[in-house]
Amino acid sequence: PQVNFSVNGREYHLDYYLTDGIYPKWANFIQSIPIPQGSKAVLFAQRQEAVRKDVERAFGVLQARFAIVKNFALCWDKVKIGKIMRACNILHNMIVEDERDEYTQYDISDFQQGEGSGSSHVDPTYSTDISTNIANQMGVRTRIHDRQAHQQLKCDLVEHIWLKFGSDCGNRNSHCRFPFK
């Protein structure tokens, strides 16, 4: 989908996914750093891997609870898949709330993201009904396969994570000094 967000003062217009090392280095796949060198790289690798694993676990819970999420979905349209996933998320949350001990209290602010140097916005008017012609597909393919965009986004994310969470990590380097291969 068309998204607009900024990281480390730079604007981006492609969504991105946290992946493991088996995915190609495309603009919308952000892998961890396999052998991180330096405090920034170590912190980024820890955060990226933790969040990616959280998402995998959450999806595993949905797959275990709802058979429809396990099934082959490539033949369905994106809108229908989105509605199914939202419905499963809502049902799961309702079940969890119902099963939770009613006396358990938690502070919701622990789960909310604070305003940081990054911001994002998903265009709600984006339509999946765009006519699919070869020129349109090739343009999107070129943007996604851009290794320089991948490296720039990864570097900006490393800096963003460092600025947001790195105060306890000691050595504060001022810029991204390592190439991603």
From TrEMBL:
Pfam families: Plant_tran
InterPro entries (UniProt xref): Harbinger_derived_prot
Protein name: DDE Tnp4 domain-containing protein
Record organism: Brassica oleracea var. oleracea
